Amino acid sequence: MLKIYRNLKPYTVSIIMILVFLFLQVMSDLYLPTLMSDIVNNGIMTKNIGYIWKTGEYMLLIAAGGVICAVVAGFLGARVSVGLGRILRNRIFRRVENFSLHEFDRFGSSTLITRTTNDIIQIQTVTIMIINMMIRAPLTCVGGIFQAYHQDRTLTLILAIALPVLILIIYLVTSKVVPIFRQVQRKLDRINLILRENLTGIRVIRAFNKIDHEKARFETANKDLTDTYIHVNRIMAVLMPMMMLIMNLVTVCVLWFGSKRIDTGEMNLGALMAFVQYAMQIMFSLLMFVMMFVMIPRAQAAADRINEVLSTEPEIIDPQLPEPAAAEKGYVEFRNVTFRYHGAEQSAIQNVSFSVKPGETTAIIGGTGSGKSTLINLIPRFYDADEGQVLVDGIDVKAMPQEELRNKIGFVPQKARLFTGTVDENLRYGKEDASEDEIRHAADVAQASEFISQMSDGYDSMLSEGGQNLSGGQKQRLSIARALVRRPEIYVFDDSFSALDFKTDAKLRAALKKDTQKATVIIVAQRVGTVMDADRIIVLDEGSVAGIGTHSELLKSCGVYREIVASQLSEEELA
Ligand SMILES: Nc1ncnc2c1ncn2[C@@H]1O[C@H](COP(=O)(O)OP(=O)(O)OP(=O)(O)O)[C@@H](O)[C@H]1O
């Protein structure tokens, strides 16, 4: 929690003002019972109406001052806590944006969303409480005890017995609820995960008639969370009545012993009335403490989760001393590269070496899971190689600022990802200042012009979340066009033609060849037809290079390639 509160630095002045206003409010609260005691003793008992009016007006003034202080402190407190929420959300967002894919794999997106939303709201709520209570509760408690003692020393003994009992109860309850609140946060994560999977996979769920199964899965998680909430609330439910019981018992005892003391002339009525009020104020301040102690563990669980994200150092960071930009352009080289995913037993790629020159098309082919995507993910440094080196333009990618590296690359991922916005905005994603001609040309090459012109507003047509109002092939073509707009040195296509029909695939590759003549093109593909005319084909088998060469060379020299070809092409095509 304290670590989280370091983010409050910009609000130091506001917090000091809040503390001052709260201090004044507590002082006014503590002063009122003494004034009331004066009215009783010096006004009512002596029937001095003038004194009653005068002191009454004074009391009103003090009370009004207290209310104004409370309102200003409340207003400032709300601003500070909401501001803290904003700072934390920004920090998490910035940190997550810098995460390498390893960190994404480790956390998972559902929990990152819960941490950025729900957890921060927890912190916000508790912050308002802490700001309000942190000073008010102890000050009222200590001030109240002091004033009560001042009114009557003997009656203070009742408080000396009741307060430790209250504190013990608070301790017992909070030590029980802290771990349960941690569980609540974890269970919320699980609900979010199921919800996310259901929303994104709704088509699959319907197609497989799994609606009932998913309902049951959600219901189980929902019930689990509800049960935990009920459990914790049950414990909490005991707390309030216990507190109230003790408070009422204290009042009864104070009145009982107080009236006896008045009887014997050891105490006056005003002092007793003031004492009762101070006893109440002390108890209520402890109640406030309880509320805080109940909320803090929950916020602590949220704070731990937020701190975990904020303290996770991205594995992939820019070099301290980047190498000067290379004069060469479009060279990619793998030198004995081995890479293993965290937690995986085997390397996803082992000892891979090859080099690629500008003006060449290099294709990577292999069975599913052979490591094709893994291999090309190392070029833009989505992951770092464990052994060996990946060089772009002769410089190790680890020695290059990420922005400079990624500016060189036009990456088309396996799964076309588009963003909410117009077609034009999506195509400009990598180059905002692209001219209209550049946008249209890229769409022409990607064979996307035709379907874009058929859309209701052409290039200004809106795409829904993730481009859901487009077909798979249309999405792929837009995502290819988006990379083409940037005119990078190196194009990387990760199985980006898989959703296209053969005719469009062939037309697109022909147009692409013309358009990217001077660039370096790396294509990952499953279809032999897509890679056949590449200048160089790299055949991957279980993460290792099984062969490198042209189509005809590999047909002669590489068994794995022959098998892939045989499974896809007819005898005549092979001949
Ligand atoms: N994020 C990840 N965490 C752990 N293991 C992974 C991860 N991504 C891929 N793998 C594993 O690494 C291996 C290679 O996967 P990769 O995605 O590179 O294969 P691929 O050749 O591109 O397959 P496909 O053609 O089916 O896309 C697989 O065994 C896969 O299970």
UniProtKB/TrEMBL annotation:
Membrane topology according to the record: Multi-pass membrane protein
Protein's cellular compartments: Cell membrane
Keyword tags: ATP-binding, Cell membrane, Membrane, Nucleotide-binding, Transmembrane, Transmembrane helix, Transport
The keyword Ligase is assigned to this record: no
Residues annotated as domain ABC transporter: 332-567
A GO molecular-function annotation: ABC-type oligopeptide transporter activity
Tagged with keyword Metal-binding: no
CDD domains: ABC_6TM_Tm287_like
Pfam families, sorted: ABC_membrane, ABC_tran
Domain of life: Bacteria
Gene Ontology, cellular component aspect: plasma membrane
Transmembrane region(s): 12-32, 58-85, 125-149, 155-173, 235-258, 278-296
Domain ABC transmembrane type-1: 16-298
Residues annotated as signal peptide: none
PANTHER family linked to this entry: ATP-BINDING CASSETTE SUB-FAMILY B MEMBER 10, MITOCHONDRIAL (PTHR43394:SF1), ATP-DEPENDENT PERMEASE MDL1, MITOCHONDRIAL (PTHR43394)
Protein name, per record: Putative ABC transporter ATP-binding protein
Source organism: Caproicibacter fermentans
